[in-house]
From TrEMBL:
This is Uncharacterized protein. It comes from SAR86 cluster bacterium.
Amino acid sequence: MQNLLIPAIAAFSVLSAGWSGVDLYFVKTTPPTIEGYATRVAPVRAGQDIRLEWHITKLTDCPGVASRVWDGEDGFRMTEAQKSTSLPKTKTITKYRFQTRIPNLAPVGELNLSIMGYFDCPDGKKYWSLGPVTLNVVD
């Protein structure tokens, strides 16, 4: 029995690796559901409201949710509550100006903002991330 078990495990491992490669191929060759970026040059302060101009292309009509994720100095990390997304599908880059509040507890130094979420499509959830946008928090 043990003589048959080892080749069976090896065959299963090879098949699993093959399917993983197929999945990776589709992830890498399928267009992303959303792409975009924003930049900010001027310094910011903790608790400040700013407007970020995002350049976004959304390639799906699927509904979804997103949240802001903040990473900063001294291990600072904060994820805001998820909210539904309402951006329409676009064929070209569209500019959006979103008001954003810098977290009150953001430490002085570099602070990165990423937007992370997923679209709930008929063929499954499509996870995505925009950014990061690097901000400089001053005292």
